[in-house]
Specification:
The chain is mainly alpha-helical. It has one domain. Helices cover 46% and strands 4% of the residues. It has 3 helices and 2 strands; from the N terminus they run αααββ. It has a two-stranded antiparallel ribbon. A hairpin with a 4-residue loop joins strand 1 and strand 2. Helix 1 runs antiparallel to helix 2. The longest helix has 22 residues. The chain is elongated, with a radius of gyration of 21 Å. 5% of the residues are buried.
Length: 103
């Protein structure tokens, strides 16, 4: 069991460095690190282990939690990204679709 926590902490330290390089410039580093710790704890708990860090879901920025929540369905129409299922409406293309402005 100790090897699992050692490995997780090694991975966390790696993610800390990566997070700093990405988010220091925009000032989001600490918020992202809070999520990293929460996510590491979640992985441990999914394996039936005790959490390593003191962070909980309540500590994570609500915007981040909303993005990973599967409790409600949300969908971004323009980017076609979401956590729910949405069937897009499509129609077959026709040659006339390309005749725009060629009168």
């Amino acid at each position: 069991r100790e090897w699992m926590y050692d490995l997780l902490y090694t991975l966390y330290e790696n993610e800390e460095g990566y997070t700093e390089s990405l988010y220091d410039g925009v000032g989001w580093t600490e918020e992202v690190k809070t999520f990293l710790r929460y996510n590491a704890n979640k992985a441990l708990m999914n394996l039936g282990q005790d959490p390593l860090f003191p962070d909980s879901a309540d500590d994570v920025n609500p915007i981040v939690m909303n993005g990973i929540s599967t409790g409600t369905s949300n969908h971004d129409f323009f980017s076609q990204v979401g956590n729910g299922y949405l069937l897009g409406e499509v129609e077959a293309m026709q040659d006339d679709d390309y005749n725009y402005g060629l009168d």
